[in-house]
Amino acid sequence: MTVMASPLEMLARVRTDAGRQAIRARNGVKYLAGIGRPQVGQTPKDVVWKRDKVELWRYRSDRRRWRPAVFVVYSLVCRSYVLDLSPDNSFVGHLLEAGLDVFLIDWGVPDERDADNSLETYVDYYLPQAVRALLAEAGADGLTLLGYCLGGDLALLLAARHPELPIRNLITVATPVDFAEMGMFSRLFSDGRLDADALIDATGNVPPESMRNAFRVIKPTGDVTSYVMLWQNLWSDEQMAAYQAMGQWTKDHVPFPGAAFRQLVQMMRDNAIVNDMVLLSGKPVHLTDIRCPFLSVLAERDHISPVTSVGPVVDLVGSADVEEIRLPAGHVGLMAGRTASKWTIPRIVDWIYRHSEELS
Amino acid sequence: MPGPPLWRQMYDRVERAVGPRLEAGVRTGMFASTLATVTKAQAGLSRRGSQLADRLGTVSARGLHLVNLPAADDVTWLRAEVRDLDRRVRDLSRQLDQAKWEGQTDDRDGKSAGDAGAGPD
């Protein structure tokens, strides 16, 4: 039986809707004009080490009560601020609140001078140097290494290739290792359909537009869904700010250094990590050489690093203490948004606590 | 807490039905072949465009050089020089960093070896 609303209730609804439409119109104009974009990456930090465009940040905190420090390694293709979108949606902020000492390596925006940066540049130079700077800064003799997406691959290679570095714990989040399972990317490069050089421009790098388009293609309904969400959230200033911050990040790619990209494509063709064929400076790198406690976090609805491409990592590392966390989230949802704050981050923090010491 | 509006529910229903099919299509070999062909064609066009721009640039550069003005070619050449210089500086600083680190490690190893050797025999 349908219950008719009273005239007063009807009036209240009309008023609410009219109010929302007015806010929608105002926010729509602001959005189109690009006014009032939210500030991102606002958690206070200090640059503690810098080489070329690469910076090591230490986030300020007066709550540090666990050691070792957490060293976050981010991907080479996007901006690191997705880990610190806004004060109430910040992966880094949650770690700080949990009493952890957080460092993050930011790769900057590569240009033609970085075109020769190879995987060795990152794994054998920037990362080891940053680790040493971190240890000196924190006055520590160990660290927990956490890599996200492609940053997780760099973290794995670093831990496997540099046993001399005091990596006490290793965490990878949404990190693909079985490149044959990477959907369109595998098909595009693995079967020799496309050479890396077809995507490299005159600067010697893969331009950000190519990266952006690639991510758009693998999720064909993504753009429409994004506009649907925009319309739905347009009436709320708070949700609009969150939408804009995330929207800004999804379009904000950086050039991928050409030399590293060529190596990555070759690694995809060889499915090098799974087949234990990774070579850096001509020397083999074996994931079985990783012996520290290891945690893999993966998202069940990840369209960039599908579960099947991330899952095998737990069988590839040589650690005795291996754990996996599977969450009902997407690639970015693992690290930002409600799923991250409710599920991912507490579980990562819990794992870190179990593998750290509380300072007295 | 109220759920999403009706229109959103309808969109989600359609997206759930269509989205996975489109994503599966994107993962096929046929799509990858088409995308590869388009990408190669774009790269080829872009190269031809730059070659044409280079030829036009050479003609205009002659005119600018006649009146003693720098042309785009000169800027490109200068950028390449600066880039090479920057790379050399980077290589040197990397070698220095490496040497510094190895020196520190040797010092530490030497010291600990010395300490070990300093004990009573």
Description:
The complex is a heterodimer of chains A (360) and B (121). Chain A is α/β, with parallel strands linked by helices and 360 residues long. Chain A has a domain at 45-181 and 270-358: Alpha/Beta hydrolase fold, catalytic domain (Rossmann fold). Chain A is 41% helix and 17% strand. Chain A has twelve helices and 14 strands. Chain A has helices spanning 7-33, 91-97, 119-138, 150-161, 184-190, 208-218, 222-233, 237-250, 258-270, 307-310, 313-316, 338-354; strands at 45-51, 54-59, 66-67, 69-73, 102-106, 143-148, 167-173, 205-206, 256-257, 279-280, 283-284, 294-299, 322-327, 357-358. In chain A, the strands form four sheets. Chain A has an eight-stranded mixed sheet, with helices on both faces. A two-stranded antiparallel sheet of chain A has the order 3-14. Chain A has a two-stranded antiparallel ribbon with strand order 8-9. In chain A, β4 (69-73), α2 (91-97) and β5 form a beta-alpha-beta unit. In chain A, α3 (119-138) packs across α4 (150-161). The mean pLDDT of chain A is 92. With 121 residues, chain B is mainly α. Chain B folds into two domains: 1-69, no CATH class; 70-121. Chain B is flat, with a radius of gyration of 31 Å. Chains A and B meet through α3, α5 and α7 of A and α1, α2 and α3 of B.
